[in-house]
Amino acid sequence: MFLLIAIAVWACALVIWWLFSSAFRHSDMDRLKSRLLGSNKIKKTKAAGPAASLIQSDEHNSLLSTKFFQRFQLQTKLEELIEQAGMKWSTHRLVNMCLLSVVAGWAVAWLLLPGQFRRFSYLVALAAGTLPILYVVQKRKARLFKFEEQFPESLEFVARSMRAGHAFSVSLEMIHREFQEPLAGEFRRTFEEHNLGLPLDVALQKLAVRVPSLDVHFFVSAVLLQKRTGGNLAEILDKLAYVIRERFKLRGRIRAISAHGRMTGAALTCIPIGVAVIMFYVNPEYVRFFFLDDVGNMMLGAAVALQLIGYAVIKQIVKIEV
Hints:
The chain is mostly helical. The protein has 15 helices and no strands. The N and C termini lie far apart (56 Å).
């Protein structure tokens, strides 16, 4: 019975999501066609409002997220997160995937957990709802790390091309032919923005926003400073590439030195979980006290909170910024 209810809820959520997506997709296409054909339909319906734009913002694409985003101003943050991850998702797709994950997590936990533990299916649902966001964050982290690995070589490439007689903007355009993603795509976008009329300093500042790396901020600051004061930009880029490589070496040494602390934090976090799992099979009555009794619930919550605080403290101790 519960399985049928969970499947029905999931199917209804998928159908509603598909209906909303298709409705907004068709409305966007009709709006675009009316603008291209010169129809006055939009002007009549929105005469009192602001002028409509040809490219609509993503915040108008989902009824599930628009009001929530506007209230807590999360639209820009999610858009930046998805863009920095290099994904083609939209914010409403990410939010709908989180909602579907919540429903699926609750249904699975409700079916698999014993009757006395089904109250914790809501916690499992909340944890499952964060999985799409964690996936995007992981993709963003991997993409930024790959970008930083290729970045020193790209700076040396720009310096060599400028010594060969090419302009700085042309050197940026040549990067996407010689390097791989994600570095090639970001510099190609920067060159295209500048080629279409955007000032070079604005295009570079937008690059620094899309790639929130300290090395990229150094690069943008060096280029803008050289543009205002003058100097040998090729030599500056060579020295900047050398500094970035030295920072990578120092970061590797620090990770090797702090490996013991990180392993200690992971061990101290996993040992209580392992002991709890073993006690659940060895002495179930002892463990059920923490789930069924009110005092046990408070003790379990306090233990989990203190464990998370201890892990966060250890992680901050071994985290050394370079």
